[in-house]
């Protein structure tokens, strides 16, 4: 990007065709700059970055630009677009595809975002831009990566729209929990045959009931989704838990097992800190038959 | 016939036997030095690239986790990629180059096999050509299996396994195999063949082919793998087992394997993207100790238990365990846990090498009595 000159500007004017871009860059436009960026269009100087408040005159670097792109190339340069989150890049490209006469022009802008100017990459970003806006905004807050966003775009739009309005609007999951919920619920969505069946199976109204805070709701949703998505694991772990409970072991003895059910068997741990604790050893021996039952519960034929 | 319409031949392979097969099949080819890598595994399915053998082609098909027992079969990398398009195919997440490549220089392949087998003359080697593709899908175009069958006939301590989902058996029916080749089928419930195993021979076509090779005197293998869960799986798998046993003769079945759907987590996304109509990834799965996704053990055991019962009935054999005698086809699980073996068959091999040894004992006692009785030490048991 060519720098043409340095100008002091007292009252910045903005290019009307950039309005939509400024809207989506809102959160990114930092004011603590030592200088701004501007460009000339039809002999008028338009600013690309804003002017610190209460400053009468501020230095602006005037950028050159490609006449076909409405100075969007200069805008991308001014905002160090290669550092943007994938969600903003996606929204920017989606806006550009509407404003520029053809896809070729949009492809030319991609290197300013640190992207390869390739049709498949552009399509992937445009698909990301089509995600429900609530989901996109949340994904941006949680720093969901480009690769993760691409994976989200493989879900059906009806499912995503439902997830955004009926689930995400009520909870504040971390990035990993968000991705896990999206995937697990999507599996159930297919397994059960659609949203209606999923809503019924989740008993959604109870889960998102207003009397709970978002953390409680998230907890409930996670538990219910696990039960729904992993019914076999849930059922057999419950059985093992019952068997362990039936052993009536003192607190000093704990039983752990692989809750994925892959590894057969369990581990018995005994806390020994005083001589009396050693009596628990005979308790273990006395419960040999019950432990056998526990092992039997781990044979799934 | 496959969908292959043209071939690219490496200049070093123009005099290979494979070229004659290509010409006979009416496949146009060009001789070309460099072939660009195909990033998409599907893009390379319609064109054959005939290459020279590079490096070692003989390897062991082994799991990286010792929690799951593998059968220690050797694999001969003679092909890479496949004209078929199964939704669960691991190649979609494995191949760096999507070109369908076949080694033209099969003399070099056979030399490598001979060298390995002659180094350990008291050991029986099972060697398959299916690791990165289908052993017979391209037989009309390449004739490779026919040449391998003939070569294995003369290696006393090696058995060739040709595993396929095709029905391309006519070219091999008249080969002088001397029972040294096991033609095996990857079989699945009809619902799965119809919905997941795209472009492969339909189940009935495979069963007809199985009958043909049985009649041609070949040893056969049945691989019910990957078993996939769906509504009505019980009846469909039962029907598969009964039809398969009926299409062949138990005394010609060298081995029968059972395995369930498994893939690494990345594959789930690949399958959902490449096969949007497939629902196989939506069933409950857990991550096993080898990092692969598979059905939870109780479900796998239920599915295996059902097939084992039907198999036992169809074969007229109560006990399928390979550890209780060799008067039956050798039954084994592909990549399963020791306790799954134990809880379903009453015993499990003590190691991967032990299973290899059981195979050798079964082959020697059932089909090759003139070979020396296998010795544990030769299998590192
Ligand atoms: S037949 Fe085997 S190699 Fe070919 S596509 Fe199917 S799974 Fe893959």
Question: How would you describe this protein?
Answer:
The complex is a heterodimer of chains A (301) and B (381). With 301 residues, chain A is of the alpha+beta class. Helices cover 50% and strands 11% of the residues of chain A. By secondary structure, chain B is α/β, with parallel strands linked by helices. Chain B is built from eleven helices and 20 strands. Chain B is globular, with a radius of gyration of 20 Å. The relative contact order of chain B is 0.12. The chains are: A alpha+beta (301), B alpha/beta (381). The interface between A and B is medium-sized, with 21 and 25 residues. The complex binds iron/sulfur cluster. Residues 82, 84-86, 89, 91, 133-134, 165, 200 of chain B line the site of iron/sulfur cluster (SF4).
In short:
By secondary structure, chain A is of the alpha+beta class. In chain A, 50% of the residues lie in helices and 11% in strands.
Helix content of chain B: 25-40%
Shape of chain A: elongated
What value does the Rg of chain B take, in angstroms?
A: 20 Å
Beta-strand fraction estimate of chain B: 15-25%
Instruction: Provide the spatial order of strands within the biggest beta sheet of chain A.
Output: 1-4-2-3
Strand order of the largest sheet of chain B: 4-6-10-11-12-14-15-19
The total count of strands of chain B amounts to 20
Structural class of chain B: alpha/beta
Q: How far do the termini of chain B sit from each other?
A: 43 Å
Estimated radius of gyration of chain A: 29 Å
Give a count of the beta strands of chain A, DSSP E runs of length 2 or more: 6
What is the H/E order of chain A? EHEEEHHHHHHHHHHHHEEHH
Largest sheet of chain B: 8 strands, mixed
**Tally of individual helices of chain B:** 11
What is the helix tally of chain A?
15
Strand content of chain A: 5-15%
The overall average pLDDT of chain B, rounded, is: 96
Which molecules are bound in this entry?
Answer: iron/sulfur cluster
